[in-house]
Automatic annotation (TrEMBL):
Protein name: Acyl-CoA reductase-like NAD-dependent aldehyde dehydrogenase
Record organism: Streptomyces rishiriensis
PANTHER family noted in UniProt: ALDEHYDE DEHYDROGENASE-RELATED
Classification lineage: Bacteria, Bacillati, Actinomycetota, Actinomycetes, Kitasatosporales
Superkingdom of source: Bacteria
UniProt keyword list: Oxidoreductase
Pfam families tied to this protein: Aldedh
Every Aldehyde dehydrogenase domain range: 22-488
Length: 492
């Protein structure tokens, strides 16, 4: 598959997008591989440090004019970009599918479709000022008695480096770029090296929508120094990162030295607490999304199931039956449910965790063997039962279609097990007693809790406790995340 877009260079090689221009990469191109077929999707550009610095400088130069552009004009630009993306949904989804191995429904609906929706969401202008109740001050060293009025104003942060994840090259960058631009920031996007071509299509749509030169820049590469330069540039005011906790910690160290703002959405090991009065059909349907949705490559997946003894055996039996029924294979086939993981290296990593689970004493009740397919990086949906919470497979993020199940006796024990984790992104509770479910949810140390669902409200704040991240985004919370709050005070 070759990329014949406007940003593509000679022989199908993608160009960088820097300062409003499509430029040839200093360090050539590298192959982007389709994880389902192992064929070539296209050729991604490898930027140099100098080109990354140029992108940051271009964003800095563009920040002043863009931040002073009326919010209504910025919103109109985002709306035009959303229209362009929607019109090109099918070819964009085809490329995303080739880069990620997503099923057709996921590529269209959850990748490009959600990306479009996020641009539309931030094409709405929201108030950037909040009045503060007046305060009566007595006479003193600061002046005579009087009434002081005040207002809080959201101001853009400045230049934002957006480092995005490989599992969704549309929704994840859109969730950063759209609110950042809506607030008047400029961006330098460093996409994941495995699937950067889709992000260049997003930049192309923004260019066609009339985004001024330098407001959006995209630089890619496999070398660690590309991301390091984009994060540490003195032109950058904020870093928004989605990825592993280990990488997030290194980015936070760099940001901390210069007091650079940061938004971190990191790893997860979502606990699914299934109480003994739960609707097991609902619980199985929700937990099984770990197998099917992005092949488990999603930080919000309910990968650590905590099942009360009264339903433990029946839940394991139903989950195992579900896992073996799911078709693994060509993500372009209509009946495929589970596509590949992103790379051969990641497949090996996931398989090594399954083997580790065996050694730790877990029972492999479904999956555990590589699917008999000629090509592609496939992992069978795997269920590990009889686990304990101290096993590495129950504590570390596997990021694949692997679920661990841990039994517990009393409600208090289930809550304690759920909270005994380094992570705290999204947990889940299944119970027929809604009051009981809410009681348990309030005690879980996680940024979000789903009650009898794995669905999300896309206006609710999203982010993690503990090592699952710093800050919140989504909905209006993203506008807060990409802004500084300024107080203006005056005598009443």
């Amino acid at each position: 598959m070759t990329d014949g877009s406007a940003g593509a260079g000679g022989a199908g090689g993608q160009r960088l997008f820097v300062g409003g221009a499509w430029v040839e990469p200093d360090r050539g191109h590298y192959e982007v591989v389709d994880p389902a077929t192992e064929g070539t999707v296209g050729w991604a550009p490898e930027a140099s440090r100098e080109q990354v610095r140029a992108a940051c400088a271009a964003a800095r130069e563009a920040f002043g004019p863009w931040s002073r552009t009326p919010p209504e004009e910025r919103a109109a630009t985002l709306a035009r970009a959303a229209d362009i993306m929607r019109a090109r949904l099918l070819p964009y989804a085809e490329l995303a599918q080739a880069e990620t191995g997503a099923t057709t429904g996921t590529a269209r609906g959850m990748q490009v479709g959600v990306g479009v929706a996020r641009f539309r969401r931030y094409a709405r202008v929201e108030p950037a000022e909040w009045p503060i109740p007046p305060q009566v001050n007595e006479a003193g060293p600061m002046g005579s008695a009087g009434v002081m009025g005040a207002v809080a104003v959201r101001q853009p942060v400045g230049v934002v480096t957006c480092v995005t994840s490989y599992n969704n090259p549309w929704a994840n960058p859109a969730g950063k770029v759209a609110p950042a631009l809506a607030m008047g920031n400029t961006v330098v996007v460093k996409p994941a090296p495995q699937d950067p071509l889709s992000v260049y299509r997003m930049a192309e749509a923004l260019e066609a929508a009339g985004v001024p030169r330098g407001v959006v820049n995209v630089v890619s590469g496999r070398a660690v120094e590309i991301g390091e330069t984009a994060v540490s540039s003195p032109d950058v005011d904020m870093v928004s990162f989605t990825g592993s906790t280990a990488v997030g910690q290194r980015i936070a160290e760099v940001c901390g030295r210069d007091m650079r703002r940061q938004l971190m959405e990191l790893g997860g090991k979502g606990a699914a607490v299934v109480l003994d009065d739960a609707d097991l059909a609902s619980a199985v349907a929700g937990i099984a999304t770990t197998f099917s949705f992005y092949s488990g490559q999603i930080c919000t997946a309910p990968t650590r199931v905590l099942a009360q003894r009264g339903v433990y055996e029946q839940l394991v039996e139903r989950l195992a039956a579900c896992a073996v029924r799911l078709k693994v294979g060509d993500p372009r086939a209509q009946d495929t449910v589970v596509g590949p993981v992103i790379s051969a290296a990641h497949r090996d990593r996931v398989e090594s965790y399954v083997e580790l689970g065996r050694k730790e004493g877990a029972s492999v009740v479904a999956g555990g063997e590589r699917p008999p397919l000629e090509r592609g990086f496939f992992v069978a949906p795997t269920l590990l039962a009889d686990c304990t919470n101290d096993m590495r497979v129950a504590r570390e993020e596997i990021f694949g279609p692997v679920v661990t199940v841990i039994p517990f006796d009393e409600e208090e024990e289930g809550i304690a097990l759920a909270n005994d984790s380094d992570y705290g992104l999204i947990d889940y509770v299944w119970s027929a007693d809604v009051a009981r479910a809410f009681r348990v949810a309030r005690r879980l140390r996680a940024g979000g809790v789903g009650i009898n669902t794995v669905g999300r409200n896309m206006e609710a704040p999203f982010g993690g406790f503990k090592r699952s991240g710093v800050g919140r985004d989504v909905g209006s919370y993203a506008l807060h995340a990409y802004s500084e709050v300024q107080s203006i005070v005056w005598p009443g």
